[in-house]
Amino acid sequence: MAITSLTPGQSYVGLLIDGVDGTPYTGATLRMEDRGPVVDVPFISHDETGQFAHVDEWFRTQTPPQNLILHTPDGMIGLYGIRWRGHSVRSGVSLGQLTPSETLLGRYEGSLSEPFKVAEARSAVDGLRQWTQLYGITSDREIGEDGTADLVVRVTTGVESTWQQGEATMSLMSDWRTAAPDIDPHSGLNISTQPVLVSKFPEPRPLNDHINEQRKVVHLLTLIAGSPIHFRQHHVGDEQIVLRSMGATVLGHPKVEAISSHTVQDYAQPRPNKRALDGMLTRFSDVGEAGMVRWNEQYEPWKKFILPAVGDFGRTNSFMEDTIISMSMSLEAAGKMIGERPGEEDTYERNRPITATQVYRCLDVVGVSWGEIGDNAGIARGVARTYNSIKHFNDGEYPDAAVSHLVSGIAQMIVRLMTLHLLDESGSLLTQYREVGAMRDLENRAKHYRLAFDSRGNIVSTEGGEPNEES
């Protein structure tokens, strides 16, 4: 048998193997919590027989083995990068708890004295299907000469696109799984397909190295969608991951599930709604492999632009004020990376660039029309003024909720459009957004609140009211 999944509330009982000759096996239970796998180890402290001497030392010194194998009746589970979580004594029996950094649902034949490493990782990620338009399954109904109908289903696994990301080779591919129905296994076959993000290294690497490279793509999707994007599952492959027969013959090297402490909490997060995914600013077919290479090249130098915005987009129901702070931090960083732009002097104070200048530079680069909301200098000053009034206790009144709602939306859109600029400096990805009316949703928001920015960044009422200098 093989263990193919580990879901919250599920548990497996087995024997812990530490790979040290002569060490007695000890019973343990692996259970899955929302925060990840936990291993419960019952043992007797100061056991005179010596059976639990090694386990007692793990918890007494808080230094368990880095790696262990849990051998269960259903199959092997690898536990890697183990950390002490705690232990207690009840009725003379101690109960220790361990948490692994990585949990492998399969046989890994590497040495337990060495770190866990794999050559390939495949990850399911929110929004990949909408972004890539990969489905991997086709069906056709065929009518025979006798009038009977056949359904022909073709499911494919194949690499669609590949690009280099440092030492890692990244690719997008369609993947599929089959399962028998729960009620009557003989009544049919369930086929599920999904695109996956794949990373490969020339030599096996720690799983977290794969995740770090894949996370760059997750961050890109977060900015393009303007919505939280999460990892949902990892499968890994390596020559050391082996499927054997009862006679120890190697039958293959399957891709098996691995659970990482760095991403397992993603699994419990709500999935992005359809509207957010349908509202992606661009698709992979427009970005292409060249755009992905460019994103990787820009990622490190532009981190201070990317990470604050990703952090805010990655939160569900973030406060508007938090959004303004995070997006303004990103725009400040981007403006300094962009450098001087024509006309930015209109935003200077005392003949020097200020926060509004950095926002203006981003606005000038993306080059979109904001309709009656205002011109670039006015919007830049308005965004900066709202940001400063939130951030500094002595800088004007706290902005009105309507102003915060409008400014947060504008700042988010500037950040997302700047992401398209990073993907393609030629501006082709921005073309459709530079057309008049492309910012219609934000223009409608401004009309709803009857607000706009004058050239100095003051909020004015489009009903003819006086400028609000404090907004």
Outline the structure in words.
The longest helix is centred in the C-terminal third of the chain and has 23 residues, at 401-423. Helices cover 31% and strands 28% of the residues. β2 and β3 (36-43) form a beta hairpin. The chain has eleven helices and 20 strands. By secondary structure, the chain is an alpha+beta fold. α7 (320-338) crosses α8. The protein has a 14-stranded antiparallel sheet, sandwiched between helices. Strands 10-11 form a two-stranded antiparallel ribbon. Strands 16-17 form a two-stranded antiparallel ribbon.
Number of strand segments: 20
Radius of gyration, rounded? 28 Å
Q: What overall geometry do the principal axes of the alpha carbons give?
A: globular
- State the major sheet: 14 strands, antiparallel
Proportion of residues in helical segments: 25-40%
> Which spans have pLDDT < 50 for at least 5 consecutive residues?
465-471
Structural class: alpha+beta
Q: Into which percentage range does the β-strand content fall?
A: 25-35%
Q: Count of helices? A: 11
State the strand order across the main sheet: 6-7-3-2-1-4-5-8-18-15-9-14-13-12
Mean pLDDT: 90
Distance, first to last CA: 66 Å
Give a concise summary.
The chain is an alpha+beta fold.
List the keywords:
disordered C terminus, alpha+beta, single chain, 14-stranded antiparallel β-sheet, 11 helices, 471 residues, 31% helix
Topology:
Blueprint (H helix, E strand, L loop, with lengths): L10 E7 L8 E8 L2 E8 L9 H8 L6 E6 L2 E6 L2 E8 L2 E7 L2 E3 L13 E8 L2 H5 L4 E7 L5 E7 L2 E8 L2 E12 L10 E16 L1 H19 L5 E7 L5 E2 L5 E3 L3 E5 L13 H5 L5 H16 L3 H11 L6 H19 L16 H12 L9 H16 L9 H23 L16 H10 L1 E3 L5 E3 L10
Antiparallel strand pairs: 1-2, 1-4, 2-3, 3-7, 4-5, 5-8, 6-7, 8-18, 9-14, 9-15, 10-11, 12-13, 13-14, 15-18, 16-17, 19-20
